[in-house]
Design brief:
It is a single chain. This protein is an alpha+beta fold. It contains 18 helices and ten strands.
């Protein structure tokens, strides 16, 4: 592992600090300037009370750094206490942009209605909420029980435009039947039951109020996402094969279909996280080892725990090797090292599937309104015969990166899965590693045992930060420890051995 600093913005660092191979401890003003430029992305104002306090010696640089972070603190309502402060908005923007980078699948905005109704940045919002809402524990990123949406201020706040028009994702054409409309119109295939059989009623249009549209502008807070129920809607299922229990499940979902639901476990049950990472296409149900959301399961380990799979050993999975299986990966222990972790977790997502609201997903051919994509949950029972309708039985199975402790636990809901992840260590060590890298530029590889003393020193620092973070559950406390660390306070970030 070779440690290299991320010195952005480079021109600021070059002008403020003289680097050399011989590490030197920065003076208090230099330490405060370093944390300020990282969080605000500007040089500090020398007339600012925090700068003055550090310069005069009445305030330590570490206290000033953490008070600077506090300027972006949320109120109990989840909104910046300093809502009109450009500095507070910059700090919040810096951290939220950092949290966005923690997910492999890119956050993409498409012209369908989904990203107008559901915040495409929902997944990183859980990290941002945990960082700036004082009463929120960090574990809430995988235990919070509701979906999230950003609170954003347009430049004209509080006199803002209709958010549908402000986003300019799509405009109604002149030949559009509702060309003078200023609200989002959502299309969905309407279905009713007659004589216990489905009867199509064509396409219906639902008006979405401006208050239901994803906000645009500067991020200033986090709020719960809104429910969006469709009346008399039957999602298309492609691979049911006429199964009677699937038909009955569709009937049970027909009225007041929740199209923007959250499924528990914070990020795990987030609509945006599910849609960004699922590998099963629209209308396809999970079907045992043949069809499951393996990519989604892998992303849980990689995006939330910083795992580079596999973590299991050949000895761990040898009881699961089946040379008579119909699946090739069951026959090799090297394959099962990954599949044992991924497939067990994916089985816990079995009752979730991707749907589309309209009969035609091609936006260019729509002539009534916009289509909507989302995840829905099938009603499940122990007596069901179809795999996707059986009560979810997932298994969390991995080894922690540092301790090598084997974690094996069953779960039936995503809330249970989130609680089990929160009880482990890797969730916190992963986040500590990422914050440490952002503030020091040192990317500690948790998957390798260092061979150099300096690399080992950084690794041990991150492991200690992660252990303490699990206890404190406070991003604020974690950052204060990073600001106080030798790596942050040394001129060369301790990226080279002292000569």
């Amino acid at each position: 592992m070779k440690s290299k600093p991320w010195l952005a913005p480079a021109l600021i660092w070059t002008s403020l600090f003289a680097h050399s191979s011989q590490s030197e401890t920065l003076n208090p003003i230099e330490i405060y300037t370093r944390c300020y430029t990282r969080m605000v992305r500007q040089v500090p104002n020398e007339a600012d009370p925090l700068f003055v306090g550090v310069k005069s010696g009445t305030k330590t640089a570490i206290d000033a750094c953490i008070e600077l972070f506090d300027r972006a603190k949320f109120s109990p309502a989840g909104v910046l206490q300093n809502r009109t402060s450009g500095e507070a908005k910059s700090i919040l923007r810096t951290f939220h942009n950092l949290h966005r980078t923690w997910f492999q699948s890119p956050i993409h905005v498409n012209p369908a209605a989904g990203d107008l109704i559901r915040d495409a940045e929902e997944a990183p919002l859980y990290f941002t909420r945990a960082a700036f809402l004082p009463e929120a524990k960090f574990s809430s990123v995988v235990t919070h029980g509701a979906g999230l949406s950003g609170v954003r201020d347009q430049k004209k706040y509080p006199n803002e435009e209709n958010p549908f028009l402000a986003q300019r994702i799509v405009s109604y054409q002149n030949d559009y039947p509702y060309k003078n409309e200023t609200d989002l119109l959502l299309i969905y295939s309407k279905t009713t039951l007659e004589n216990n059989s489905f009867v199509s009623k064509g396409v219906d249009v639902m008006r979405i109020k401006p208050s239901q549209i994803t906000e645009v502008g500067d991020l200033v807070g986090v709020k719960a996402s809104q429910s969006l129920k469709l009346s008399s809607f039957r999602p298309t299922i492609r691979n049911a094969g006429g199964a009677a229990d699937v038909t009955e499940a569709q009937k049970a979902m027909l009225l007041n279909f929740e199209s923007n639901g959250h499924f528990g476990g914070g990020i795990l049950g987030s609509q945006a996280f599910l849609q960004n990472n699922a590998n099963l296409i629209n209308g396809t149900l999970a079907n045992g080892f043949s069809d499951i959301n393996r990519r989604l399961a892998a992303r849980v380990f990689e995006d939330l725990l910083c795992h580079q799979l596999p973590t299991l050993t050949t000895e761990d999975v040898s009881p699961e090797v089946d040379t008579n299986s119909d699946y090739a990966f069951h026959k090799q222990s090297t394959c099962m090292q990954c599949h044992s972790s991924i497939d067990g977790l994916a089985f816990g997502f079995r009752n979730l599937f991707l749907f589309t609201s309209g009969p035609n997903p091609n936006l260019n051919s729509q002539n009534m309104g916009l289509n909507f994509f989302g995840f829905a949950r099938l009603p499940s029972s122990t007596s069901a015969t179809t795999f996707a309708l059986k009560t979810p039985q997932g298994r969390l199975n991995y080894r922690e990166r540092h301790s090598k402790r084997k974690i094996t636990a069953n779960f039936s809901t995503l809330a249970e899965l989130g609680s089990k992840l929160a009880a482990g260590q890797d969730l916190y060590t992963c986040a500590a590693k990422r914050y440490y890298q952002f503030f020091t530029g040192v990317n500690v590889d948790l998957n390798l045992i260092p061979t150099k003393n300096l690399d080992l020193r950084h690794r041990n620092q991150v492991l200690k930060l992660g252990n303490d973070f699990k206890q404190s559950q406070s991003v604020r406390t974690l950052l204060k420890a990073i600001f106080a660390s030798p790596s942050f306070q040394e001129s060369n970030y301790l990226t080279e051995e002292d000569l």
